[in-house]
Amino acid sequence: MSSPPRLNDWLTSRQPLVLGLFRIVLGLLFASEGAATVFGILDRKASPVGDWPFWYAGVIELACGILVLLGVATRGAAFLSSGIMAFAYFTEHQKDGLFPLQNGGLAPVLFCWGFLLLVFAGPGALSLAGLTNREAPTHRAAEPPRATAP
Predict the structure, then answer these.
(1) Cβ–Cβ under 8 Å, residues 109 and 88
(2) Omega before 100 cis (within 30°)?
(3) Cα 25 from Cα 69, distance rounded (Å)
(4) Of 16, 39, 107, 119, which one's alpha carbon is 20 to 30 angstroms from that of 2?
(5) Enclosing H/E stretch for 125
(6) Alpha-carbon distance 36 to 44, whole Å?
(7) Which residues contact 5 (CB under 8 A, 6 or more apart)?
(8) Angle at 144 between CA 142 and CA 149, to 5 degrees
(9) Which residues contact 27 (CB under 8 A, 6 or more apart)?
């Protein structure tokens, strides 16, 4: 008689799906930041074309956000995104205080670490690269241990 699956096994089996949903939300939020900076939407004034570093960061945010959202070149786009968020934090926020809650840098810190996670974990499920087999599948759910006969 087999026992019902444990909660840990159930959660583990859904890791690729939840990672894919995480990637989609993170990419959408990042792309919206970039679109707001480049095009002046979502109640934000557009950064002038060529304005260093804001306009360039906006273009990178928009492009990498779309790539991450779609799950195409996820690791490379996430690596670049993580790096520009670390740059933004240390050049724009760190001077105003040590902690993100003090200096208004909570969003860059969360984006930085979220993208760093995707660099190592990959796109998860629901990616265009996964549909076209251009990116190797990410970690697979662990199989539950099998009972052995005595």
Answers:
(1) no
(2) no
(3) 7
(4) 16
(5) none
(6) 6
(7) 144
(8) 140
(9) 65, 66, 67, 68, 69, 70
pLDDT in tens, the chain (150 residues): 555 679 999 999 999 999 999 999 999 999 999 999 999 999 999 999 999 999 999 999 999 999 999 999 999 999 999 999 999 999 999 999 989 999 999 999 999 999 999 999 999 999 998 888 765 454 454 555 555 555
| Cα first-last separation, the chain | 14
Task: Specify the 3-state DSSP secondary structure of 49.
Answer: coil
- Interior/surface letters 7-24, b for 16+ CB within 10 angstroms, e for the rest: eeeeebeebbeebbebbb
Nearest Cα neighbor of 129 from 71, 50, 47 is: 71
Q: Which amino acid is residue 24, in one-letter code?
A: I
d(CA 89, CA 138): 29
Residues 6+ apart with CB under 8 A from 132: none
- Say which amino acid occupies 19: L
